[in-house]
Amino acid sequence: MADGNQAVILAGGRGQRLRPYTDVAPKPMLQLGSKPILEYTITNLRKNGFTEIIIAAGYKHEVIEEYFGDGSKFGVNIEYSIEETPKDTGGALLEIKDKLKKHFVMGMADHITDINLRKMYEHHIKTKSMITIALEEMDNISEYGVVDVEKDRVTGFREKPRFSNFINTAIFAIDKEMINYIEPGENISSAVIPRLLQKGKLVNYYVTNEFWKDIGTVKEYENLRDMFASFEVYHNLFGKE
User: Fold this and answer.
1) How far is it between the farthest Cα atoms of the chain?
2) In this structure, what are the phi and psi dihedrals at residue 144, rounded to the nearest 5 degrees?
3) Burial of 233 (0-12, 13-18, 19+ CB in 10 A)
4) To 10 degrees, the CA torsion angle through 213, 214, 218, 221?
5) Domains of the chain (ranges plus CATH)?
6) What pLDDT sits at residue 1?
7) How far, in Å, CA of 154 to CA of 30, rounded?
8) φ and ψ at 41, to 5 degrees?
9) DSSP 113-133
């Protein structure tokens, strides 16, 4: 297989909020339709040219290794980094720093997305950023009417206004130099990126409105599982033969 771009997938979490499902299997191996969550992640990486993959696994890592092996059945090359104890997102990179290329992408094994990672990666390279964050624009509608006030009077009233925010998807394109700013056990979003900003390093972003879902709770998983099951039934009944 030709050498491709590199990706790191973090798959070491215990998935406590998804118990009892995760009592049997690690969160990335929970089924959506006929495939585990992690397979969708790998498929999107391969589709975007990321065929050199390092999976940082921990809890029930044997299940992941047995299913994916060296990745050849899925069109990629897979290496594994096994964490005996959780090291968080930054600590996981420290463990594999000698295996990393100059630039790579990193994401979570329990997210479902079709984000165009190739475009994000190219944007990261072009801007010469230390790290580029994939952001998803998300609208929230207030449950209440909002009143604007100034001094001693009401100046406006907005009935259930819509607020727009950019959500951190925890998908990153990274320059390997960033690892020099990580301390063991740190989280990239809450500790490393603020440090980079404090030191004046370039932290960039890539805005996407493509599908992205963090499967963090039982309700979120069951809703998505039912949706995927419906899609497969529809395809089997009405898809092209």
Assistant:
1) 71
2) -130, 160
3) exposed
4) 40
5) 5-238 (3.90.550.10)
6) 42
7) 52
8) -60, -45
9) E---HHHHHHHHHHHT-SEEE
